[in-house]
Design brief:
It contains 6 helices and 5 strands, in the order βαβααβαβααβ.
Length: 140
């Protein structure tokens, strides 16, 4: 099974990894894992002010900070995963990657802000569910 794991470095990412570890049917070398992390683009004027090298380093450092504990987790399980970081709205890039990559399952943690907060703030998970036809396992 091709599994896409969306991570953001939050405690909900850790909770999601713990869930995977507790379910042998979802975790193991028999599956193909891709881990995705998205970050919003630095505003154009700020990027122009600091320069492309600084912005690129910011994106790389952010991705590595999020991927480091996830990479450690998968390595401890004896699993090789592919790591992808994108610069765009998380919901858009996760849904696009899930669809274009023909993944069998998307695993994502939810912050669980509640209906009122989602109405005001929006929700990455809600947007992913609206844009993606890949089955989603939501961990709260």
């Amino acid at each position: 099974m091709k599994i896409l794991v969306a991570v953001d470095g939050s405690p909900y990412t850790k909770r999601m990894l713990a869930y995977l570890a507790a379910h042998d049917d979802l975790l193991g070398p028999k599956h193909d894992y891709t881990v995705v992390h998205s970050v919003l683009a630095v505003p154009h004027r700020a990027a122009a002010f600091v320069g492309t090298d600084v912005v690129r380093k910011f994106y790389e450092d952010d991705a590595e900070a999020v991927f480091r504990p996830v990479r450690t987790f998968f390595e401890q399980q004896g699993i090789q995963a592919t790591y992808v970081h994108t610069v765009s709205h998380a919901a858009e890039s996760i849904a696009k990657l899930a669809t274009d990559g023909k993944f069998d399952l998307l695993v994502i943690g939810s912050h669980g802000h509640g209906e009122l907060a989602n109405l005001v703030l929006g929700s990455v998970v809600t947007r992913v569910l609206a844009k993606c036809s890949t089955p989603v396992l939501l961990i709260r």
